[in-house]
Amino acid sequence: MIFRKLFLGVALVAIAMAFTVSGCKASLVPARQGLVMRNLELPVRQMVYPSGLRVLAERDARTKLVGLFLVVGAGSSSDPPGKEGLAHYIEHLAFRSRPFGKSGLRRLLERAGAGEWNAYTSLDATVYHEVGPASSLGELLRLEGARMLAPVTKLTPETLSVELDVVRSELREHNETGFMGETLGTLQKAVFPEGHPYARPVIGTHESLTSIKVDDIKAFLDAQYQPDNMTLAIVGDIDMASIDAIVKQELPPELLRARPAKARPVFPEQPPEPPAPPPQLLTRSTAAVATPELWIGWSLPRAFDADTHLVGMIEDMAAEGLSAAALRSSYGAGDAGVRDVIFVDTGVVQGKDASMLVCRVGLQEAADPERSLKHVLDQLPEIWDEPINHIAM
């Protein structure tokens, strides 16, 4: 989820408690207890192998658990034109893969003791993770290595078809029976220039999903699922001194030894120029919503390397500043467009080329959406003034 829950209209309940104490012995009163904070150290180790694979290990011994997080540097922006949704489809197929025989990866992870596992696809990355007991680290690494080496293997045409139907169901849920995905896609088209990969939906369309063939899957895996385009993070109760030896023992040698270098995309010098504002500031659409909603989008700097802190700062300031629109609406002052705003949620869609700030505004009746839009946008100057006020204080 990219939106934060805002809890509005919180009721404050005063609870009065009366205590009657008589004849209480001092020995029944617990002694004053001091609060002692434990020293917490989370050592990190980085290992880079001849193949280009990077492994990050972080020791956290507070629980006897370990988590594996595989980041593949390819998301929906790597989908070939007309094949939108391919990266997300492959993410699904990776859990269907049968690396060692009849059992799929889902079942193998469960047998290894993984209590939680999942994955997601974003604009620029596909992320897999599993969490299990620290004693299962070796087996979890072996399974993750099998997925890294051959993400989609031993799948029948029937399995490919069934999983494609699962992706289609997600598309219907978010974009057809729901409205979030379709609305977000509309904002992407408005914020990013035509033809840019960020202007396309991560999940694709029914037409693009139908066009995906087995050869498309193989070509994508050959280009993107390579060791030099992967980072594996191991976090938990691990022995930092022996983790390198465990990685070399459990991961397939093909993932570690040197390979012919492949050209990788680099960060652009400048982010893409956003398109010109539409002739009409508001675009109306019909969706199954509880109350009318207003969605606003802005382009932001990319959320990686030197510009990461800027995106985080803007996200925090926007969440606090724009929410004032709902607070001031609750005062009951102003015209109907001002009083119509009932909540404001904000979030950021991050990307390596650029990012997008999304503002979701709930309305009571949408009697005057243009005025409600202006009311929200009127909070923007105060966002930039806020740090100055803090400094002056």
Report helical residue fraction. 25-40%
Spatial separation of the terminal alpha carbons:
35 Å
Predict the CATH topology of the largest domain. Answer: Cytochrome Bc1 Complex, Chain A, domain 1
Mean of residue pLDDT?
A: 85
Would you count the extended β strands for me? 9
- Taking pLDDT < 50 over at least 5 consecutive residues as the criterion, the unreliable ranges are 1-24, 388-393
CATH structural architecture of the largest domain = 2-Layer Sandwich
- Structural class category: alpha+beta
Number of separate domains: 2
Please tell me how large the radius of gyration is: 26 Å
Give the SSE layout.
Layout: E1 44-48, E2 54-59, E3 65-72, H1 86-96, H2 105-111, E4 116-121, E5 126-133, H3 137-149, H4 157-176, H5 180-191, H6 206-210, H7 214-224, E6 230-236, H8 243-250, E7 293-300, H9 308-322, H10 324-329, H11 336-339, E8 341-349, E9 355-363, H12 369-377, H13 380-392
Parallel strand pairs: 2-6
Antiparallel strand pairs: 1-2, 3-5, 3-6, 4-5, 7-9, 8-9
